[in-house]
Amino acid sequence: MTTQSVTTTPETGRSVVLRYALMPVDGNGISVAMVAAMLDGDAGGTQARVLAPGEVLPYGTVPVLVTDTTVYGVTRLEEALLRWGPLPKPWLVWVADAPTRPVQDARFTVRALEGRLAGVARLPYLPVLRAVKGPDEALEYKDVQAAAVRLRRTIEGN
Question: What is the pLDDT of residues 2-20, one digit of tens each?
Answer without folding.
Answer: 544 444 444 555 445 789 9
